[in-house]
């Protein structure tokens, strides 16, 4: 009788282990796989870098600029002529737009 009970117990343990292995690890498996895929995607992007190496990419130093020829103030090239005219009127009231921004004045004409 004890041998039969022992065999039944072993069969039960074996079946329980097989059942647990077949079920997987639960809902965290999908979360873990999604996180791993997200991290791999982020790791494949080029890094901006820190310090002096990545300063140009962080600050937009390589972006085209418009420079006032009188005070050497830099403006982004995407600024409109009316915004640049505001600079001329406020900072250099005795000068013309062409004096401050000759490239833009040529393009305008």
Automatic annotation (TrEMBL):
Extract the InterPro entries matched here.
At2g23090-like, At2g23090-like_Znf, ZNF706/At2g23090_sf
Q: Per its UniProt entry, which superkingdom is the organism in?
A: Eukaryota
Location of the region described as Disordered in the Swiss-Prot/TrEMBL record: 30-59
Residues in At2g23090-like zinc-binding domain copies: 68-103
Give any Pfam family that matches: zf-met2
Query: Where is the signal peptide, in residue numbers?
Result: 1-24
Q: Which UniProt keywords apply?
A: Signal
4Fe-4S: is it a keyword of this entry?
no
Protein name in UniProt = At2g23090-like zinc-binding domain-containing protein
- Organism in which the protein naturally occurs: Blastocystis hominis
């Amino acid at each position: 009788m004890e041998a039969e009970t022992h065999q039944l117990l072993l069969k039960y343990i074996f079946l329980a282990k097989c059942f647990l292995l077949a079920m997987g690890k639960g809902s965290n498996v999908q979360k873990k796989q999604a996180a791993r895929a997200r991290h791999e995607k982020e790791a494949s992007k080029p890094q901006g870098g820190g310090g002096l190496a990545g300063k140009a990419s962080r600050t937009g130093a390589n972006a085209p600029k418009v420079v006032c020829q009188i005070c050497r103030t830099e403006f982004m090239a995407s600024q409109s002529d009316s915004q640049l005219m505001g600079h001329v009127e406020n900072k250099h009231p005795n000068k013309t737009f062409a004096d401050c921004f000759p490239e833009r004045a040529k393009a305008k004409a």
